[in-house]
């Protein structure tokens, strides 16, 4: 069963390779993602995030979901010494860097709770998989038609932060300026919550972020620095060549 929808500003595609699975089986997961977009988008004036940013909600009035996301944001802000920060001066509250991976992982969990055994959920190039092995390509940061690595993942997630899709959209919270030092950084982790947030946070840190991401429990890293050097951890699950 295959299904694709454009939610949260990017395509989300689902592949379930379980015999007899119908499109209706995916509806709870996609409904959840649509809810997240409506509730957490800083670009919607009526979203919970926007209302909080305008001071219309007190901390005790937040939904448990938003409270969880903000707690995760604070965890990463502290862990990176402020490089990952969703509250930059002069900009509104924008937790999108945390929400994406967290929401998509929750969607994948909804599917497995309902019996999906072999699935790949791809959100704008970041993937959560189960029932593998699955092969996941890592795009070359300077050549859109090439891969610089192919990974093999059975259970878990892969996320990449880079400049090639949206330019200098990742800011270093310590300076308020676009992050420098890396062309791309990919993280393999047990969940897309961890993989996506770690990739974004490490990219914001620059070259020092490679070692920081690699030091996080359960994370494997593949990165290309601005000088073209490749950095990868020993446990990176590189697919065997045919």
Automatic annotation (TrEMBL):
Superkingdom: Bacteria
Cofactor(s) this protein cannot do without: Mg(2+)
InterPro entries membership: ApbE, ApbE-like_sf
Catalytic activity: L-threonyl-[protein] + FAD = FMN-L-threonyl-[protein] + AMP + H(+)
Species, as recorded: Streptomyces ossamyceticus
Cited PANTHER family: FAD:PROTEIN FMN TRANSFERASE (PTHR30040:SF2), THIAMINE BIOSYNTHESIS LIPOPROTEIN APBE (PTHR30040)
Keywords: FAD, Flavoprotein, Magnesium, Metal-binding, Transferase
Residue stretches spanning the membrane: none
EC code(s) of this entry: 2.7.1.180
GO MF entry, a single one: transferase activity
Protein name listed in UniProt: FAD:protein FMN transferase
UniProt keyword Flavoprotein present: yes
Keyword Flavoprotein applies: yes
């Amino acid at each position: 069963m295959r299904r694709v929808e454009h939610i949260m500003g990017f395509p989300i595609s689902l592949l379930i390779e379980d015999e007899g699975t119908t499109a209706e089986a995916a509806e709870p997961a996609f409904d959840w993602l649509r809810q997240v977009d409506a509730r957490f988008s800083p670009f919607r004036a009526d979203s919970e995030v926007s209302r909080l940013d305008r001071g219309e909600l007190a901390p005790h009035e937040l939904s448990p979901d938003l409270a969880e996301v903000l707690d995760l944001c604070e965890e990463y802000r502290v862990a990176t010494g402020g490089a990952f920060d969703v509250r930059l001066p002069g900009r509104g509250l924008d937790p999108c860097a945390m929400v994406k991976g967290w929401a998509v992982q929750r969607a994948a969990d909804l599917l497995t709770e309902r019996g999906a055994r072999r699935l790949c959920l791809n959100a704008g190039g970041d993937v959560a998989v189960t029932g593998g092995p699955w092969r996941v390509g890592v795009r070359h940061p300077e050549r859109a038609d090439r891969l610089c690595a192919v990974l093999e993942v059975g259970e878990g997630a892969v996320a990449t932060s880079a400049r090639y899709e949206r330019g200098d959209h990742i800011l270093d919270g310590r300076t308020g300026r676009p992050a420098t030092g890396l062309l791309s950084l990919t993280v393999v982790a047990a969940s897309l919550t961890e993989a996506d947030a770690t990739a974004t946070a490490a990219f914001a840190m620059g070259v020092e972020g490679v070692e920081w991401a690699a030091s996080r429990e359960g994370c494997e890293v593949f990165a290309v620095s601005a000088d073209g050097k490749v950095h990868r951890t020993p446990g990176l699950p590189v697919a065997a060549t045919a």
